[in-house]
Amino acid sequence: MIYHVNHRSVLSYAAPVFDARINLRLKPVAWPGQSMRDYRLEIDPMPASMRDEVGPYVVNTLALNLAEALSALTVVSSFTMQVDAPVVPQHTPSITDLRQQALAVQRIDALAPAPYLYASRLAAFEPDIAHWAATSLTSDQQVLDGALDLARRIYREFAYVPGATSSSTSPADAFRAREGVCQDFAQVMIVALRSFGIPAAYVSGYLRTIPPPGRERLVGADAMHAWVAVWCGDAAGWVGIDPTNDCLTGESHITVAMGRDYADVAPVDGVFVGQSVQRMKVQVDVAPLD
Asked: What is the pLDDT of residues 172-224, one digit of tens each?
């Protein structure tokens, strides 16, 4: 599939703020099965300076320095992306064997299992999640089968409720409420997998949405999406699983970045000097071209 993606973010402030430092994580990383062209980024007003930063995870960060008084900032990221269906491994190691493989890997690069084995800022260890996940993640289970069973349980037991949580909601709180959005479901799954020694990462990206029968696709009504990448051993590598939709990732998923949790790959964040509240309005359009 080939898509054109347009992502417009407007940050606004009730009163001017100063010395804003804004991080953008909107440009997709190089990822197997994806081929991007015509990437374009529009920023208004233009910052005093910009700096590309790479890593430490699988993420492209553009750091903006806006020294002048700022009442609003508009950022438009757009690109065309070809996405090929990933190859699904037919066999993956048992969870016991995978734990041993993960600990034996000596690399510490952004795609190595080590950075995604342990608790992180927004994905702390939670005993209740570990206990709940135990029936899916038995030691002799193939890791991919166990992870898919876990995603299926999240899909069935949790309610998708926009507005029920925020970007700062912990996996523990989302788990207790049994409701949330894609970010919450991904982070609950990550905490569960890491509890059993399975490397798990948070992936931000886009998902093609299909309108109901008889309805036209609404331009700008899409949104960013989140799912989980599970390390399934040296041979299989990272495999994407979408617990919000109970499926493996495929041609409808466009990867932008991968980190330990949402904080590593947040599309827009930063700091400023001032007392005004920041508000952000986002419009996303994922349009298939073939």
From this structure: 999 999 999 999 999 999 999 999 999 999 999 999 887 666 665 544 457 89
Q: Residue 271 is part of which domain span?
A: 2-84+266-288
Q: Which residues of 260-287 are buried (b: 16+ CB within 10 A; e: fewer)?
A: bbbebbbbbebebebeeeeeeebebbbe
Which residue, 82, 88, 104, 127, is CA-closest to 288? 82
For 234-285, the pLDDT digits (tens) are: 999 999 999 999 999 999 999 999 999 999 999 999 999 998 889 999 999 9
Residue 51 buriedness (CB in 10 A; 0-12 / 13-18 / 19+)? exposed
| Residues 142 and 275 grouped into a single domain | no
Task: Give the integer Cα–Cα distance in Å for 192 and 199.
Answer: 10
Asked if residue 185 is part of any domain, the answer here is: yes
Decide: helix, strand or coil at residue 262. Answer: helix
Distances in whole angstroms, Cα of residue 206 to Cα of each of 89, 127, 253? 23, 31, 6
pLDDT computed for residue 210 by the predictor: 72
In sign, the C-alpha dihedral spanning 162, 176, 158, 5 is positive
Pairing of strands 247-248, 253-259: unpaired
